[in-house]
Amino acid sequence: MPKAGIKKFGLLIDQCLSPELAKMAMSRGITSVYVGHMKKLYGKTDQQIARYALRNEMTLVTNNMVDFQKIYQKKELHPGLIFITWVDDDFMNLETQMIMFEVALHNIDRDELIQEALEIQMEEDDGDLFWVSKRYPLPL
Predict the structure, then answer these.
(1) Which of 20, 75, 98, 122 could form a disulfide with 86 if both were Cys (CB 3.0 to 4.6 A apart)?
(2) How much is the pTM?
(3) Predicted pLDDT at 38
């Protein structure tokens, strides 16, 4: 897989997130596709979505960290994963997703995710919300 950059190959936004994230990435010049708008991917399994992302050299953006980490852990080479996660579903509205996605986009603007995962997690402490960003190699 050439190290040609995220802007060339793009992002695949999983259907568990808002389609507005794809629009947000496109407005920044990053090719982006929302799974829920693709007939060939809508309602498909995680394996099928991962296979599409890998075949098309797209970085997958999802909140399904457990399942996709298992799938990508077995891949020798991949264009990266972005996990947008939260501890409480009450906090995961469109505005929160967009804030967290902005953090992810800022992170990948600086450096590609080849063979890496980027996790942006929303947490709560004494009623205050904050995000934590972690970047790590995958496979570990």
Answers:
(1) 122
(2) 0.89
(3) 93
